[in-house]
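Q: How would the structure tokens look for this protein?
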Amino acid sequence: MLEQRIQQQFFESADLLYQVAENLARPLAVAAQMMVDALTAGGRVWCAGLGLSASDASYAAALLAGRFEQERPGLAVMSLDAQAQGYPDPASALMRQIQTLGHPGDLLLLFECQGSGAAGALLQVAHSQEMSVIALSGTQDDDWRSTLLDTDVQLRVPHSRFARVAEAHRLLSHCLADAIDVQLLGAAE
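A: Here is the predicted structure in token form.
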């Protein structure tokens, strides 16, 4: 019984990835181009995640600032610290960091897999700093979708289980890192 339940986790994850592959290919390509444009113009990419997605933001920043599958110069990509001291909640800490560090031409890469109500406020702060946004989200995001601008990209993984959304977000990070590397370095041999 336990083995079947474990196998079901794999099947559910694989089914979701298969289902979203076609719908997310174009927005992923647009998002990767946005990131390349921002970075090559001297901007920075700020990665932020709410709740359990904070670790996904750190992971994506590490892939881009360091390396993915091939060696390249580091990119100006940093993860914002949702646990900054002095703020009552992580969202307030992230908003303050975006206000302080974000500049026109920078980009916010926002991870949100559990439907936090704070995402809309983060988007508004980024927009007030004249930053574009790439939002990796799940199903529970209807409260803030209207906050996205035409210049933003949403990579939405429609699933009710946050674990499946988080797994897909990790793959989306890999896709972005690979697409950026291909644009900057060409295809690896």
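The chain has one domain: 2-185.

The chain is about 50% helix and 15% strand.

Upvote if useful.
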